[in-house]
Every structure is written in C-alpha cells, then in structure tokens.
Amino acid sequence: MLRSKSFAWHGHARHRDLDSEISGYLVISRTTMSEPEIVYDARDIESNKVMAILAYIWILFLVPLLAAKDSKFAQFHAYQGISLFITWVIINVIGMILPYSLSGLVTIAGIGVLVLAIMGIMNAYQGKAKHLPLIGKFLTPKN
User: Fold this and answer.
1) What is the C-alpha separation between 128 and 61, in angstroms, rounded?
2) Residue 121, φ and ψ in degrees, nearest 5
3) Is pLDDT at 4 greater than 50 in this prediction?
4) SS3 for 21?
5) Can you give the pLDDT at residue 8?
6) Which residues 6+ apart lie within 8 Å of 107 measured at CB?
7) What count of other Cβ atoms lies within 10 Å of the Cβ of residue 103?
8) Residue 16: is it exposed, middle or buried by C-beta count within 10 angstroms (0-12/13-18/19+)?
9) Residue among 9, 29, 8, 30 nearest 19 (CA)
10) pTM of the entire structure?
11) Contact predicate 106/89, CB 8 Å
C-alpha cells in the first residue's frame, strides 16, 4: 500500500499515512530522506520468514532463491543475501592479494559483512524489507 501524503507544518514536511494496494506489496512513505520501505503481504511474510532469514547465512541464499520463487518477500531477502555473499567473496579475494601487513583491513571489512548479515536477519525476522546499507541496492528481484 502506498502511504504518503505530505503537508507542511511550521516549515517542516510531515507525512500522513494513506493506504492503497499496489500489486501484492505495500510501500510505506518516507518519514526521513531515506528510501521507502517495501512491506509485503502479511501471509507471505509469515510463511516465508525462515526462508528470508536463511538468505543471509553464507551460500544458503540459494534456498529461498530456488525454493520460494513465488514469495516476493523471500526473493527480496535472497537478492540481499546474494549481494552480501558477493561482497564477502570480493573482500576475501582482495585479502588474498593484499600483503599480510594489511590483513587487518580485511578483518575489519569481514566484521562489517557480519554486521550487515545480522541487520538483514533482524529485518527478515521483523517482517521488514529494507535494503542493506551500502550494498543492498546492487541487486533487486524482478517484479
């Protein structure tokens, strides 16, 4: 559902929620300058939370990608998991190329990937469809 109606109040933009369905998923308005959050059908979310969570555990993004093809919620998180996995592979390849003295940078980047995975798992568990910071918009499922 698209929820967005802006109005000005003392020079600040405010948003009022309005609901209207758009092709099986919902879009919530921006309350900040960030991208709108996509919210899928409640039945889809509840029946595919586990699939969405699996998407963030290393190569297990293949499970929701192949087993939950009809779930837009699981597919969204599978594509986020693919972005995360590709980032992890790139970091490790760079780590093989860098001299040992710079291996601390690879460790820090690896911790960053772990933090992104935890953020994705938390979003999936809460039924949210938020793009991961920095890497989440590189791949998106076809609608």
Assistant:
1) 17
2) -60, -45
3) no
4) coil
5) 36
6) none
7) 11
8) exposed
9) 29
10) 0.72
11) no
Q: What is the pLDDT of residues 26-75, one digit of tens each?
A: 444 344 456 666 768 899 999 999 999 999 998 999 999 999 999 999 99
pLDDT for 33 equals: 54
Cβ atoms 71, 64 nearer than 8 A: yes
Joined tokens for residue 78: 């599978």
**Which two structure tokens, joined as six digits, stand for 98?**
């860098």
**Mean local confidence (pLDDT), 97-112:** 91
Asked if 26 and 38 count as a contact pair (C-beta separation under 8 A), the reply is: yes
How far is 83 from 88, CA to CA, in rounded Å?
Answer: 9
The pLDDT of residue 6 is above 50? no
Strand pairing category for 2-3 and 25-28: parallel
Please check whether residue 132 is in contact with residue 115, taking contact to mean a CB–CB distance below 8 angstroms. Answer: no
Contact assessment for residue 114 and residue 63, using Cβ atoms and an 8 Å cutoff: no
